[in-house]
Amino acid sequence: MSSGEFDLRTRIGLEAFAPEVTCSRAKCDTTATRRIEWRNPRIHSEDRIKIWLSCDEHLEFLLGFLKSRGFPVRLHAVADPVNEEPIV
User: Fold this and answer.
1) How many angstroms separate the CA atoms of 17 and 56, rounded?
2) Does the model's pTM come out above 0.85?
3) How far apart (Å, rounded) are the C-alpha atoms in residues 72 and 57?
4) 34 and 24 in contact (C-beta within 8 Å)?
5) pLDDT exceeds 70 at position 66
6) Is there a contact between 56 and 33 (Cβ–Cβ < 8 Å)?
7) Neighbours of 11 (CB within 10 A)
8) I want to staple 59 with a disulfide (CB 3.0 to 4.6 A). Which of 15, 17, 54, 79 is the partner?
9) Which of 2-11, 40-49, 79-88 has the lowest mean pLDDT?
10) Exposure of 77 by Cβ count < 10 A (0-12 exposed, 13-18 middle, 19+ buried)?
11) CA of 74: how far to CAs of 13, 15, 71, 84, in Å?
C-alpha cells in the first residue's frame, strides 16, 4: 500500500459505484465515519492490516467484538491518512 490520503473507494475499485463508504456492520447502509484497523495475531503477521468501517451507531459494537477477542486495534476517521505501521 502506498502512503498518502486514504481513499477507500479508489483502493477497492468502487469509486464509480458507491458515492460514499458504508458501515461494515451487517445490514447497515449508513455512511461510515470511522476506520477500524485490526488483525488477528493467531493467523496474521504484524504487517497484515484488516479494515472495517463504522458508522457512529455501530462503533462500540464493532470495537467490542474485536477487543473481546484480544485483537490489536487502531481507530481513525475514514478520511485520515493510512497508517502503514504494523499493528502490534
Assistant:
1) 23
2) no
3) 21
4) no
5) yes
6) yes
7) 13
8) 54
9) 2-11
10) exposed
11) 24, 25, 10, 11
